[in-house]
Amino acid sequence: MERPLSPLHSLPPESTAGVTLSGLLPPASLIESLLHASAYLATLDSLPLLQTRNTAAAIQRARVISSLLEDLHDSTSRGRRSLPISSILCLTELSSVIQRTKTLLDDLASGSALWSLLNAEASAKRFLSCTRELSAVLDILPLSLLPISSDIREQIELLHRQSKNAGSDLFVDSREIHLRDELLCIMAKEKGFLDFNKVEEVMSRIGLRTAAAYQEEIKKLEAEILKQAGTGGLMAVSNINNLITFVSYAKNIIFRSSKSDAFPKALSRSSSWSVATSPAIASNIPDEFRCPITLDLMKDPVVLASGHTYDRSSISRWINSGHQTCPKSGQKLIHMALIPNYNLKSLFEQWCKENNLSSTLRHRAPDSAAEEAVTVDHISATRAAIEAVRMTAEFLVGKLAMGSPETQRQAAYELRLLAKSGMENRRIIAEAGAIPFLVTLLGSRDPRTQENAVTALLNLSIFEKNKTLIMAAGALDSIVKVLREGELMEARENAAATIFSLSILNECKVEIGKTVEAVAGLVELLQDGTSAGKRDAATALLNLAVYDPNKTAVVEAGAVPVLVELLMDEKAGITDDVLAVLALLCGCKEGMRVIGDDKAAVAILVDLMRFGSEKGKENAIAVLMGLCKDGGAEMGRRLLMNARSVPSLQSLAASGSMRARRKANALLRLLNRCFSQSNSAPI
Prior knowledge:
Structural class: mainly alpha
Largest sheet: 3 strands, antiparallel
Radius of gyration: 31 Å
Helix content: 55-70%
Keywords: Repeat, Transferase, Ubl conjugation pathway
Pfam families: ARM_PUB, PUB10_N, U-box
Strand content: under 5%
Strand order of the largest sheet: 2-1-3
Protein name: RING-type E3 ubiquitin transferase
Enzyme class: transferase
GO molecular function, one term: ubiquitin protein ligase activity
């Protein structure tokens, strides 16, 4: 019998010519696609007023890459030489980097300039991430094997060095930070007159120089609201709404004409103003200060989840009548919180002063049981503020104890919001005795009450001492029941998140792990939940599996087949979390046996070694290492039979992270032993 070649022996580059990889574009199509994308970036010549240096650097890199691709396209299209497989994999990764860079530049070009300015660091981090990814691709690009000219090779080597250097530091332009500080200082003025010459100067420096530009900026901010509202970003929505109000007000002031002056410059100092008694003046109130429902002046403006502002009394009546949509946009509301729009109120008071009018803003007293609950929107560190929170918490706990079902639902919701805003609040709410009553409400037949109660407990559990109090109140069984039987998916997801939060304490890990229903409920949510729910379930299982005795419980609950299936579900977006759980489950014999018995597991893990994230690659190797140690020569043969396993391990051993290199080398040695032991028989 002919002695087989060692699987660790690298094939010569020439042997890869003409080979295509399953799931990848043909080389010619890949190069054409890359050339088109990089050429698009390379031809960009008008730089934005923000992130100028980062954008210019990204475009310059695209131009160098475009030159490389033109050379490759010329060589391959004439059939002079084929590309090695390793370069095809690198070019596939390069395509992903270029696409992310294009998306970033498109976002900057089409997005709100003001929002980009306020989030300068976030944009800079996206540029840094693209630079680092490019550097990583160039690390493994086999330049010596590519049919390119020496000039192009030198340019790519220079680009590689520059990318490595640029990828070590985050660059945020100090001029943008200074400009942002100026803008925030202007917007922070709650009293007195705004210096509109200064406003106009700042706006001009970010590209807003005409009334049409202001109007376009407002549209872009409104589009940003839809993105943020869709992810539940309450503070972001409130901030964007404040920007819209500010831009609208500045536009009306800066570009007003004598013919259609919406803001009369001056009235007699003796003039007094009232909506009811001065209809002529009231007709000049800017639309921004009117409630979209009643068209009356907003006395207490609040922001809805959709991002639109209404008067509190009007929108409260709308919500209390059973509506769950925004009156203006028709958008379904993801929550019913009403966020005070202090900026709009401040701008209205300033408008009154500018026009010598007396402001008649005043808050309306609560007129229904559902509106009695107090929402604390800004908690200061003063003693008076802490006392106010204490009084609010005690008031709401009283409503939980003695109120009608409707009042209990509203009180649980207000406690949920109050517990979201700080550790001090969470401590005070627990001291007021809220936890036992919230645990009782977990058994409510009303889905919203149940959701509010479990979410309030989730927020309270963030404070470490409250974890013990929640467990002592006998909450676990009720939380598990919500996890498995809750009518609302949000309630089930938040129950899983609560279990994760509680399991941070070691003693809670033990108790939760012993509760078979808890682990089974997490596996069920992992299987049929939304993307967010699957992530919550996976992180909870990960935390529980850190404690060794819980590993067997997780395996016996049927987690492994579900986890392996999720590795193939790109929409779930939790590949790294799933791999981390599987790596932990390899710490018990039952876990290794079930993973090893899964026919698809090995092939998927090999693919993830090639295309996964850095952390994902490390965990994929860890799982394969555990399987080979447990399964011996048989598992080694299964791995060696996969043609992609050894090249992937060699690549990681050469250019992976420190942990990935160490694990890859260890697994290669293990496979070598398996190979040596199998030389006497065909593999």
